[in-house]
Description:
The protein is of the alpha+beta class. Helix content is 33%, strand content 23%.
Amino acid sequence: MTDPATALHAARRRRDLAAGAEETCDVLVVGGGITGVGAALDAASRGLRVTLIEAEDLAFGTSRFSSKLVHGGLRYLATGDVATANESALERHLLMTVIAPHLIRPLPQLLPFAAGVTLRQRSAGSMGMAMGDALRLRARTPRRVLPPPRLVGPREAQRLFPALRRRDLRGGVLGFDGQLVDDAALVVAVARTAAGRGARILTRVRAEELHDGGATVVDTLTGERLELRARAVVNATGVWAGTLDDSIRVRPSRGTHLVLDADDLGRPTAALTVPREGSISRYVFALPQRHGRVIVGLTDEDAAGPVPRVAAPTEPEIASLLATLNRLLATPLTRDHVRGAFAGLRPLVDNGAASSADVSRRHLVHVSPGGFVSVLGGKLTTYRRMAEDAVDLALRHRGIDAPPSSTAALRLVEDTGARWGAPDDTSDPPALPRAAVEFAVRCEGALTADDVLERRSRLALVTADAERARPTVERIVAETLADLD
């Protein structure tokens, strides 16, 4: 049963926007990605009056284009960044045991011992998994949640990932990490949990200017210009943070993924971990998903220039991902096997490194010259800690008294995501039942068919699937919105 207090919909948006324009909130959060909704929940759970604004839809930007992993940071261990790996392991523990165990499952990850994976890469990967397990133990994550790594023989490796080339396969090492039902579903769950604590969640409201006492905004649905007043302001707009705070330098890095049919890889039950040629710290992953899909990623490419509304994969990136994966497959995949591709931009803090791959994934919170707090960097797994740090700094800077953060012990709403299929559902893409589309509009803040197709059901990861469903979804969305009026 859905708690009405957590339901986000068009009628509530209109009421909350009108009320928000008349009052002064304690904390105004700008940005409806995972960090922004995390900050809104953090502040609301302290008993503060909170308004969140988002120019587009929840999870519109980077937060829907991740690898959908809640991970302990094998890559960070490989580069010696133990602090980030430790923080990741601690936050993964909280997510998988307290905050969102209903949205995450343990995912086996196979590093094969085969031609194409050097002895140095095998050793580094095995050592990294062992060190990662030490961090799991330190975080007190039980084995029933994340089993420890173990060696597997050739037969088991082939069973876990049937498309592997049998010749020269000597088994491998099997580790475990967390996998989200869906990254956008996590964002929506956090936003709805914040709404249940009284936060106003306002999509399609664009910030034009921030200052220490609030923001000038535009309701993009009506064109109305408004002033929202706040005692403290948090800029959590990710790769767009620099457009509102010119004191920070954001260095976007493009991460591209491919969408494949699981049948083309023998319907694997474990993820495949493939080291990049010549590297012991960069990997390509083939990650089984719900509904008969596998996503393959990801790249780490500098994305200089103006930030696009939606990032686009490049053909060289697609070719590179296929080439890396094909090193270990019995039957190489071609461009024709790619059902879809997507790219997200990481909001990294520019530290002058030669390559974005060398930029630290540690997050930054700082007070801008305008008197508001900006937060960027980090990654999806550590969103809760980023949000806590941002709210702590905002309250301290503005002299606002409030209790400490309680989000480490706060469970998210539990009716988000599961209706689209269980985490281990291997059936083909659903036909989007009417009830699921209605739920997205009545409870999850979806206002358009694109909101449903791209960020609630994720059918748009494969364009052909989305276009087949679009006429029906458009009709149901329109009927449901009319019923809400």
